[in-house]
Amino acid sequence: MPRTITAIALLFAACAAGTVAAAQELRIGLQDDADILDPDQSRTFVGRIVYAGLCDKLVDIDPDLTIVPMLATGWEFSDGGTTLTMQLRDGVTFHDGTPFDAAAVVANIDRSKNLPESRRKSELASIESAEATGPLEVTMKLGAPDATLLSQFADRAGMMLSPTATEAMGLDFGLAPVCSGPFKFVERVQQDRIVLEKFPEYWNADAIHLERVVYLPIPDTTVRFANLRAGDLDMLERLAATDLAAAKADPDLTVESAVSLGYQGVTMNVGNGPRADNPLGRSALVRQALSLSIDRGALNQVVFEGAFAPGNQPFPPGSAWYDERFPVPTRDVAQAKALLAEAGHPDGVDIELQTTNNPVQLQVAQVLQAMAAETGIRLNIVSKEFATQLKDQTAGDFEASSIGWSGRTDPDGNIHQFQTCGGGINDSRICIPEVDELLNAARVGEDFAARKAAYDDARDILVKEGSIMYLYHPTWIWALDDAVTGFVPYPDGMIRLEGVRKAG
Amino acid sequence: MTRFILRRLLIAIPTVILISVFVFLLQKLLPGDPVLALAGEERDPETLAFLREKYRLNDPLPMQYLYWAQAALQGDLGISLRTRQPVLELIGEKLPVTLQLAVMSLTVAVAIGAPMGVLAAVKKGTFWDWIANAVALSGLSIPNFWLGIMLILLVSVNLGWLPASGYRPLSEDFWQSIRTMLMPAFVLGTGLAAALMRHTRSAMLGVLRMDYVRTARAKGLSERRVILRHALRNALGPVVTVSALLFGELLAGAVLTEQIFTIPGFGKAIVDAVFNRDYAVVQGVVLVTALAFIAMNLLADVAQALLNPRLRDAP
């Protein structure tokens, strides 16, 4: 018997000896598995995190959301905002050795706009033509002035893929992507790992201090956190708010956070098919009553330990676009009841609220239910698996739907397609012509003050009539091993690897 | 024997066809739209319509099935809508992982379950029987995800003995592969050991009552020899069948255990595929799993026939 015990102990010792992870290899835990690694075809958030290491863009943002140069070193709008001329960085090559030049940019814009499978078409819709007007100069003609274009270039629509590779691989580019970012693609095993290694000829190679990056999808937040604490991960994204205290208390970990660009809200059906015929859909007063019945601060405390940012607009409080005239409302049960009575529902109303069937969103719905019940709005929660919820919401088979938006750098991306008559994601089918005019005007101007004024004027109407009840803005929370330094949190939730170091 | 195997193989063909039709229809019954799931936050109606047309999602259901079946017969299981990876290649990646986990889990299950079953039968009604039953009951009733997370917290986080994740294929890094599989195999194995222990125990109890066992004892053979040589050998039949069935079940993927230990096997693949309405992947993985299950059943029958020659001529 003692011999067996010794043998087992030896086995464990042998196993433990191999656990020292290689230095200069950064292992990042992601919440999901990315979809296809083709910026023109992909849709997942975690895919964008991988691109931050793999694919450089024409421009980038800084942590304050200002557009800064990346592959384009300068740009200028002319002809009343209908021509955009970009100067490109010299001496950049793609991972396969193809040189980056104006022709490559034109080919990329063409693919994003014209590949039938492209999911980037609407983002670049304003571009009518793109032309190489010099070896390192691209000139784009726009159908109309477009204030959002640069921020589109700061995301997937601006990622530059090697034209040689897109030509050779076609739709299968994503199986072995070739870009010009700081790291090049090595291998991918679905649901397991995506491995990148340093690209020595990177134009900004001096800022890169890692040899390899491995992205590991670990969907369960508890398990992801346990992996970090066990040393099997160097950092993770989207730490659960409930684990925040434990992470902060751990002397071997650091925690970084940034309020996201996105929001969570309740979309109300006001004109999408027969189910819009419900008290919320018919009456803006009932919608206001629902909003007044919610204590957003308490919701944030109960479900997210106070880590998120309560909100009431498509942009988080603190954003330059936030309308200070309408701060996050305080809960007012009496006023909510009065509004309900005024709308002709002194005995309250019954509303079906659909939500995603994960524990956190269910809890959010239950908190809303409890708060709304006190004003006489009886929410009947129906939880659905996400794909089903999305389909029902698009088809108008809902009264109210608790759903989030990941957020865009330019304010237009958080409001236009949701609140304009023909908006692509206007599932509530709200249609207020004055709002359309204001939001259309806001997307063409280049002048901050003019754009802000248009959004504020739209807010005057939407705060009364709007069909989305904004609840909170999630906070991105990253937890890192102490050995990792130089990480800068960005509100877009990306993990930029420039300057990140890992102590051996 | 050959005729026996051939006949079983012939019966398998309609089974496979039925399963593939059934899975196909079940998927189509799922609410949710694959193209919408595929498009995510970008919902340009033109692109959606194009994709729907391209993947023939507007065609009548029987036609959609026939397209799939025709290609499948030629060895083409289609591509994943989510990543464009060929389904066959995906299965080729996942199958060895799932096989390894299944073999290791079953080894744990047999190593714990069979001796415990024998012990419980031989010492029926004693303290040992009671202990074996209690262990089996807890193995059955402790949820895998709970045991898994507790093991990670204890063994990986606190003791630092085994990695919590980081699976590598056997061919790439043998030690790492085994180390990362130990905990999941233990979690799955202990759950299965319970079933195996119960089966072994009842089979042994049945055999121990037989006349030839009494004869063996009367001949003056040692108790050890009576149990291991005479009784156990005859009690093994049902145990082998149960093991083969459990193995087949393991091949379908152990969803929760794979999620917790980040093992990239069938379980995780199929869950992601269902949530993304990635029909071709679901269809392909289920087909392979069904084939594996049928193969394991056949193997069990053959093993039975080898252990018990009387079965070979049975219809």
UniProtKB/TrEMBL annotation, chain A:
GO terms for cellular component: ATP-binding cassette (ABC) transporter complex; outer membrane-bounded periplasmic space. CDD domains: PBP2_NikA_DppA_OppA_like_5. GO terms for biological process: peptide transport. It holds the Pfam family SBP_bac_5. Keywords: Signal. Residues 1-22 form the signal peptide. It is found in: Periplasm. The keyword tRNA processing does not apply. GO terms for molecular function: peptide transmembrane transporter activity. InterPro entries: Peptide/Ni-bd, SBP_5, SBP_5_dom. This is Peptide/nickel transport system substrate-binding protein. It comes from Rubrimonas cliftonensis.
Automatic annotation (TrEMBL), chain B:
Its main location: membrane. One of its GO terms (molecular function) is dipeptide transmembrane transporter activity. The keyword Ligase does not apply. Gene3D superfamilies: MetI-like. Keywords: Cell membrane, Membrane, Transmembrane, Transmembrane helix, Transport. It is a multi-pass membrane protein. Pfam families: BPD_transp_1 (PF00528), BPD_transp_1_N (PF19300). Residues 95-300 form the ABC transmembrane type-1 domain. It is found in: Cell membrane. One of its GO terms (cellular component) is plasma membrane. The chain crosses the membrane at residues 9-26, 99-122, 134-161, 181-200, 235-256, 280-300. Belongs to the binding-protein-dependent transport system permease family. This is Peptide/nickel transport system permease protein. It comes from Rubrimonas cliftonensis.
